[in-house]
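Sat 14:20. Reprocessing the chain from the morning session after the first attempt stalled halfway. Input below, unchanged.
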Amino acid sequence: MINGLSLFSNVGIGELLLKKCGINIVVANELEKDRVEFYKNVYPECEMIAGDINKHYEEIIKKAKEKNCKFLMATPPCQGMSVAGKRDYSDSRNNLIIPVLNAIKDLNPDYVLIENVPQLLKLKINYNGNNNTVEKIIQKEFENIYNINDNKIINARDYGVPQNRKRAVILLNKKNKWEFPKKEKKIVTVRDAIGDLPSVEAIINGNSNYFIGNDKKIEKCKKIHKWHIPREHSLRHVEIMQHTPTGHSAFENEVYFPKKIDGTRVKGYNTTYKRMEWDKPAPTITMANGVISSQCNVHPGRLNEDGTYSDARVLTIYEIMKLFTIPDDWCIPEWANENFIRKVIGEGIPPLLIFKIVSNLDGDNNE
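Finished this time. C-alpha cells:
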C-alpha cells in the first residue's frame, strides 16, 4: 500500500476507490469547514488539515513527509476556468495550482495526479519568474525528474463512467511513463446506470400527494436508497416537462414551453429545460444538477399511456451517484442537506475514472 496526500480534497469523492488499487490517502487538506467534516466522516483514519493551503502549507508537507507519502493527488479549484462558471482567468483561485507545484518539489513523491477542467492546461501563471501556461511550466520544472504523460484531456465516458465529463489529467511518474489505460469499447449509458430504478414524480410545493399514489412510490424508492427521493419543483415546471419527450427540451414544445408566472415565454437555450437520453452517457453533471432550468438535468422519463412523460424532475441524489460511479454505501453525514450534497458531487471526480487511471500506475493495464 502506498501512502498518499490529497490537496483540495472537497469531500473525497475521487478517492473513494483508491484503496482498491493500493493507494491509502493518509493526509488531506480542504478549506471549507463543511467539506472538512464530510471528509472526516468518510475517511476517519485520514489526518485532515483544515484551512487555507497557503497558511497551512508547511504543516501539510511536514505531515506528508512524516507519513512517507509517495503519492500526491491535487484537484485545485476550477471555478475561474470552468465553462460552467464565469471563465474569469484573473480569478485568484486559478493561482492555487502554485502550491501544488511547490508540493511536488518539497515532497518529492513518486507519483503525481493533477485533475481539473481542460482549460487548466492553457491557464497562464507566473511561477519562479516564468510566465507561461501550466502545461509548459510543469514540463520545464519537472521533465528531468518525472516521466510526464502526453495525452492530457480525457473523457470519463471512455472509461466506464456513464457521463460525458472532459477533464485535464496530468500524470507524473518517476519510474515509468504513466499512461492512461486504453479507451473502452463499451459505452455505459444512462439506461445501464439507472434504467432499473422505479419512476417517481416530483414533489409539488411540499405536497407529495399531488400525484395519485406518488407517496407510496416515494416510500418504495426510500427502501432502495435513502437518497432516492424526488426533488421539489414548481407546478409549472413539472407540467412542461410532462409534455417533453426523452432527449428533448421544453423549448421545442408548441404549447408547454417554459413560461413565467404571468404566462409569457421564457428566453433560453435548447440545452436547458431538457431531458437526458436513455441510450447515451449523461451530460456533464454540474453543481446546478438540482435545477430543471439548468443544462440537461431532467430525468429521461418514460412514455405514459396518456402521451405524457413520467419523472418530470431532476435526478435524485442516488441517480446522480450512479451516474458518477459513487458506491451505494457512500457515508453521507446525517447533517448534510440535499443542496450541499448536490453541489459537492457536481464539483467531484468520478471515482471509477480515478480508479482506472491509478490502476494503470505502472502501465500494467493497457490491454
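The first strand starts at residue 2 and ends at 7.
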